[in-house]
């Protein structure tokens, strides 16, 4: 009896194991993703792991002086932010609105609740509390047209230059990974962060005192925000750039802006997806405009920061050397032809890409 029980138990175990193996195999085969992907290599993880924490963990070794940063700034940053970081022409100003008293207290007075701000608008240096945020953002996202192209020392230098403009460090200062924690102690809004408990604790009491209407609310008939006419088609037809499923539909920016509220007119037709270009069609000039952020400064038909591409085409129409000239300007940048705001060099473009863009402009930018 004892031997029979042992045999039965073994049979059950083997049977169960076989069933589990069979079920697992069936599930693996039925899942279309079971053989997709692979583990990231150590080198790949390292390449992505570039964030710098508020305690400066992750900060690479390096150094950059204010003067070095100023040189980089004029070539790669001033075209969008102004020579002193105070321009409002392209992006919100980075520098301005802080005082020496703010540096002492660590709290920007213009941001204190109930205070009347004398600053025309809130700048980056007024709001940011941690210096690591500035360093990390410059490192991963700047320059606008060629992110991650600055060397580590250039990032230190540019950060030092901004700090000097805000009078946080002197003009002869060199920022390094060794002294950056000390500089953090002089950030104007270092004490401006607020700990909001419901965001961190699952059992914390949330904001249940909201007085906003949640049911049968009156519709505000006033349109508070709109896309300027000159910028409606700066990035192509937005309606063609949305998924064909789901509730989101982009505006048809080839047509004038609607006068009523969104949703008040007849339903928009399903977007027409532009057919992919064939290999024989050659390089896609308009695609290059978007991927290289050209349309952030140039509209297709009108000026944004720099002239519209149609304006450039008209200016150089019929000139024998127009294509070669524009190819050189695209690659090297410059200023003075269309105004005081300089155009940064487009170092990321190959000679072939620059030639394609120049040819497209000369042929009418259509």
Molecular structure report:
Helix content is 35%, strand content 2%. The protein is mainly alpha-helical. The protein is built from 13 helices and two strands, in the order ααβααααααβααααα.
Explain the layout of strands and helices.
Elements: H1 2-30, H2 42-48, E1 63-65, H3 66-76, H4 78-81, H5 100-105, H6 124-127, H7 131-141, H8 152-165, E2 174-176, H9 180-184, H10 285-291, H11 309-315, H12 322-332, H13 351-362
Instruction: Name the helix and strand elements from N-terminus to C-terminus, one letter apiece.
Output: HHEHHHHHHEHHHHH
Strand order of the largest sheet: 1-2
Rg measurement, Å? 29 Å
Largest sheet: 2 strands, antiparallel
Residue fraction in strands: under 5%
Number of strands: 2
Helix fraction, binned, reads 25-40%
Number of contiguous helices: 13
The class by helix and strand makeup works out as: mainly alpha
Query: What's the rounded overall pLDDT mean?
Result: 78
User: How far apart, in Å, are the first and last alpha carbons?
Assistant: 91 Å
The backbone outline, from C-alpha atoms, is: globular
- Uncertain runs with pLDDT below 50, 5 residues or more? 1-24, 264-268, 270-282
